[in-house]
């Protein structure tokens, strides 16, 4: 590829793509392809063009392409099924409104390997994308990066390198929940994990393990059950736990929906919560305080997580870099009425 | 106002505003104001200009103003707090995605009389607006109409004339819920209504009344309590009902959150659901089947309501008129485990 040497016109922000094409010795459509993040450009050509764009002080499209009348960011979910999602929407919408930005709520496509979705957002001139609980592929991340579309993830399965992620202190939450049960006198404490692929599930389980270890309680693999963040599987696993000869007196569920599944399993077995079985959830979705009994759970500041994700994205779109690629907001335990001392200890009172 | 007679150029859709301004004998900014729905134009001038725009076959901005790359509609809530809202979002987003339209989720402003919100959406070139459970004023409706921005409402307090609304068969739902309790043998059936201003609350209460009337049970004003669709007030009212000397054996709550409040009140009073008290909710939000006990409730097809509202809006934006301004989707009773025969009847078994 022919490449001319040109003097960067520092100070000017209105470089034309024709100038860059001329400087790079390529056609205008090729420069346009690079800017739009299209993959059909040879890597060395892309790099040369990107270097020239940077030298010329080209302003990324994400910053300038939207009409000042309506600036929008995209909030994409893998599924829109839980109260967790609603609180995140609330946080993102509120923070975006303060910045005069509108929020497009959508679903990430089923095909995790395709980049059609990323291409569509690129062509729709997205100002930036917040992805929630989705598996985002390296190809998708590369596509957004080439198109200069900022990306922020909330509770991803894996955090793609260099992509800011926002979440709660899940390990600490798992630790606190389990410590609460141990402090009440429980020794047979089971857990039902969330979807194992999710980073937050793994962190909560490790918090549970750490609390047991600190209390010198040997781990019992029989008391660790794998869930999927849903009610049904948690109820099934809880029924198995409650049928054990030496059944647990407390269960730490990895989210509130799973805790409801445990409460229902107890009801089916004729056990009372909390008199016969203590249950702790995670999330503190609104409904958890309206359960019967009101649920002891680890509060995640979901609205605030949405706010911070939005603010991080807007900063990226304005050309800033966050101080840290990972932001973790504090969790705290909310003690309500689903936990109590275990039956044998309780009877001593 | 001077007005020239001009021959409409039938067949051409690309009339310029300058032509209309000339024909109406007004300035270009005045025509522009009429198109943008601004109120500061004398009514007779507005009418003359609107007539000319129609004669010239002016295509409303809502249809043509958006980039083909990204068409968006607005989904506006008075509050984003309940699972009800999430299921509507899911329905609207799914139906819009099928039409290649993106959905901006936002909040209607607190000031119910202001039209700043309507103006902002007009200037943001909204393709159309779906308003959920909001009080929408005549001024706002007039503003959207002048700006040719289609409007659809879901569960409004009042249905503004000429605005299509989508909802569930609330009266029939209230009737079915109450008939179910009467069929189980209950005679002391109370209800806790939703927010009295909402049309759907009034319809559900009338359904309850109709069922009692058909069963020749005289109405007892003491058994009709006013709620606000929230857990706390419903629990408070249920505690009062359960403290009555001749307490009800069944309560029809006007939504699921209120039903959870009733279940919690029963727990506080040491009453078992359903053995001592039957409870019926309304909505069938996902969480209702995960309650302890799983809730008998009236299923509203919320996702479908969202879909139909979206399809109605897209049809309006394409220049079609719906066959009916009011679309009601069927409800049905889902019998789970929170209802049973009343204690005295049950003991005869």
Output the keywords.
349 residues; alpha/beta; Rossmann fold; 3 domains; 6-stranded parallel β-sheet; disordered N terminus
Short description:
The structure is a homodimer of 349-residue chains. With 349 residues, the first copy, chain A, is α/β, with parallel strands linked by helices.
Radius of gyration of chain A: 25 Å
Number of DSSP helical runs of chain A = 13
Q: Biggest β-sheet of chain A, characterized?
A: 6 strands, parallel
Helix content of chain A: 40-55%
Sheet with most strands: strand arrangement of chain A: 2-1-3-4-5-11
CATH architecture of the largest domain in chain A: 3-Layer(aba) Sandwich
| Number of DSSP strand runs of chain A | 12
Domain unit count of chain A: 3
The CATH class of the largest domain in chain A is identified as Alpha Beta
- How would you describe the oligomerization state of the chains in this entry? homodimer
Describe this structure in words.
The structure is a homodimer of 349-residue chains. By secondary structure, chain A is of the alpha/beta class. Helices cover 40% and strands 16% of the residues of chain A. The first copy, chain A, has 13 helices and twelve strands. A six-stranded parallel sheet of chain A has the order 2-1-3-4-5-11, with helices on both faces. Chain A has a six-stranded mixed sheet with strand order 7-6-8-9-10-12, sandwiched between helices. In chain A, β1, α5 (83-98) and β2 (101-107) form a beta-alpha-beta unit. In chain A, α1 crosses α3 and α5 packs across α12 (302-317). The longest helix of chain A has 16 residues, at 83-98. The relative contact order of chain A is 0.12. Residues 1-14 and 61-66 of chain A have low confidence and may be disordered. The A-B interface holds A 67, 69-70, 72, 74, 80-83, 85-86, 89-90, 93-94, 97, 102-107, 123-125, 231, 257, 260-261, 263-264, 267, 286-287, 289-294 and B 67, 69-70, 72, 74, 80-83, 85-86, 89-90, 93-94, 97, 102-107, 123-125, 231, 257, 260-261, 263-264, 267, 286-287, 289-294.
């Amino acid at each position: 590829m022919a490449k001319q040497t040109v003097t960067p016109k520092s100070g000017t922000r209105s470089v034309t793509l024709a100038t860059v094409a001329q400087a790079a010795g390529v056609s205008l459509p090729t420069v346009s392809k690079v800017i739009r993040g299209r993959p059909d450009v040879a890597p060395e050509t892309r790099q040369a063009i990107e270097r020239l764009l940077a030298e010329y002080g080209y302003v990324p499209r994400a910053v300038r392409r939207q009409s000042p009348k309506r600036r929008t960011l995209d909030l994409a979910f893998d599924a829109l099924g839980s109260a967790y999602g609603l609180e995140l929407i609330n946080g993102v919408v509120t923070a975006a409104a303060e910045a005069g930005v509108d929020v497009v709520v959508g679903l990430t496509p089923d095909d995790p390997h395709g980049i059609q979705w990323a291409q569509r957002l690129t062509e729709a001139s997205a100002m930036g994308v917040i992805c929630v609980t989705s598996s985002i592929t390296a190809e998708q991340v590369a596509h957004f990066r080439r198109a200069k579309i900022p990306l922020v993830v909330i509770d991803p399965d894996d955090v793609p390198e260099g992509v800011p992620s926002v979440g709660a202190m899940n390990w600490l939450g798992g630790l606190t929940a389990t410590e609460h049960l141990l402090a009440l006198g429980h020794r047979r404490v089971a857990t039902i994990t969330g979807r194992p692929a999710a980073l937050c599930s793994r962190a909560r389980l490790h918090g549970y393990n750490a609390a047991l270890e600190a209390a010198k309680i040997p781990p019992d693999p029989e008391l660790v059950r794998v869930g999927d963040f849903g009610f049904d599987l948690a109820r099934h696993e809880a029924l198995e736990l409650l049928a054990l000869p030496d059944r647990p007196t407390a269960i730490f569920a990895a989210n509130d929906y799973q805790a409801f599944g445990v409460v229902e399993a107890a009801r089916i077995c004729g056990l009372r919560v909390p008199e016969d079985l203590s249950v702790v959830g995670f999330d503190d979705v609104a409904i958890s305080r309206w359960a019967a009994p009101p649920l002891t759970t680890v509060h995640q500041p979901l609205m605030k997580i949405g706010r911070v994700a939005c603010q991080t994205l807007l900063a990226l779109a304005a050309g800033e870099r966050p101080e840290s690629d990972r932001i973790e907001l504090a969790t705290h335990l909310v003690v309500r009425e689903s936990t109590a001392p275990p039956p044998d200890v309780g009877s001593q009172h």
